[in-house]
Design brief:
The protein is α/β, with parallel strands linked by helices. Helix content is 35%, strand content 27%. One of its GO terms (molecular function) is imidazoleglycerol-phosphate synthase activity.
């Protein structure tokens, strides 16, 4: 069985790490360079950096900050936010990113998925999907940092993106984001069991049991969280030890 990954996420706004609930009510969570270095030391398997207002503010990702973080860590580093072209990707890879997370731009221009995959390999392309379960029971894709609803169903978009070359899916449930009530097990399980690429579950991790559930019940390959790590509600070494006791393979 493949080792399950624990991934802290740095949501960046104005050069600081922030965290909200259901994509709103953001509060400061600290200096991203310091947090990144600390997570690498704690044994995080990877790190994700999302410039959460780059798309809305119509600007590029903070390449200089990416470079500073990359110099302080020795674990795989995924960067997203404001990426619209293959040239944007090249800048971030040269700044130290290992993988690129794309969301809104890929939805509007699916060809960018193939473009990045052809240039850097599918393993470099992480498709981020922000999804919300609506009253009809279906999970819909949202864009622009969760501000814009589409008529596309989450599974259909994920499947199409994988066909185009996405090598990994970062699935964030907007219903669960920041609530610490547990991950969205149903949609995570559907994607994990149906797609031939790894699925990272995001949104709702609040206890160690929640992480175990998303690995055991929803078959996720990785679990991403932010505030529980930023505010030291869960320490990564303790979480990994707990998961190991649940017979979930993790890198200690």
């Amino acid at each position: 069985m493949l080792t399950r990954r624990i991934i802290p996420c740095l949501d960046i706004k104005d050069g600081r790490t922030v965290k909200g609930t259901n994509f709103v009510n953001l509060r400061d969570a600290g200096d991203p360079v310091e947090l990144a270095a600390n997570y690498a030391l704690q044994g995080a398997d990877e790190l994700v950096f999302l410039d959460i207002t780059a798309t809305v503010e119509k600007r590029k990702t903070l390449a200089e900050l990416v470079k500073r973080i990359a110099h302080t860590i020795n674990i795989p580093f995924t960067v997203g936010g404001g990426i619209k072209t293959v040239e944007d990707v090249q800048v971030l890879l040269q700044s130290g990113a290992d993988k690129i997370s794309i969301n809104t731009a890929a939805f509007h221009n699916p060809g960018i998925i193939s473009g990045i995959a052809n240039m850097a390999g599918s393993q470099c392309v992480v498709l981020a999907i922000d999804t919300r379960k609506e009253d009809d029971g279906e999970w819909y894709v949202y864009l622009n940092g969760g501000r814009t609803k589409t008529d596309m169903l989450c599974y259909d978009w994920a499947s199409k993106a994988v066909d185009l070359g996405a090598g990994e899916i970062l699935l964030t449930s907007m219903n669960h984001d920041g609530t610490k009530q547990g991950f969205a097990l149903d949609i995570t399980k559907r994607l994990s069991e149906s797609l031939p690429v790894p699925v990272i579950a995001s949104g709702g991790g609040g206890t160690m049991e929640h992480f175990a559930d998303v690995f055991i019940k929803a078959k996720a390959d990785a679990a991403l969280a932010a505030s529980v790590f930023h505010f030291k509600e869960i320490e990564i070494p303790d979480l990994k030890e707990y998961l190991r006791e649940q017979n979930i393979p993790v890198r200690i």
